[in-house]
Amino acid sequence: MGLLPIILVTLGIIFLWGIVNYYSLSQFRESVRNTAQSLREQLQVLGQAAQQNTAPEWQTLAQQLQTNQAQVSEQAWQNVKTLAEADTQAQSVVQARKKYEAALKAYNEAVRSKPSAYVAMVFGFKKIA
């Protein structure tokens, strides 16, 4: 018999492990993309609502969201959190951001963890800032 069956079984297990890890990393990355898209949509809706509102804090928020749609500054997030206490639309944005941050954290942990890091390196999964 020899070592050949043992080597083949070991390689088969490693191959299956790689497939499972690749699928898991793909799912994490897709989750990050979906939550980021949802957050963008929520921010657009909030920006439109802020433009229609005449209160000064809403106008400031509308300007911040228009100038920096891709990455919202921390000051803008503070304004959103303050407005979220009174507005359900702002609350939905805060919830969307929390979901995005949770998905991003799970993805980054999966990419950095040792066994999955090898699969991530081979297939080009990178940490998202």
Question: How would you describe the overall organization of this protein?
Answer:
The protein is mostly helical and 129 residues long. The protein is built from five helices and no strands. α1 crosses α2 (56-67). The protein is rod-shaped. The N and C termini lie far apart (51 Å). The mean pLDDT is 80.
In short:
This protein is mainly α and 129 residues long.
End-to-end separation in angstroms reads 51 Å
Query: What is the number of helical segments per DSSP (H or I, 4+ residues)?
Result: 5
Structurally, the number of domains stands at 1
Shape: rod-shaped
Give average pLDDT, whole number.
80
Low-confidence stretches: none
SS-derived structural category? mainly alpha
Largest sheet descriptor: none
Count the E strands. Answer: 0
Radius of gyration: 22 Å
The arrangement of helices and strands along the chain is HHHHH
Give the amount of beta strand, in percent.
under 5%
Residue share in helix:
over 70%
What key attributes describe this structure?
129 residues, mainly alpha, 5 helices, 83% helix
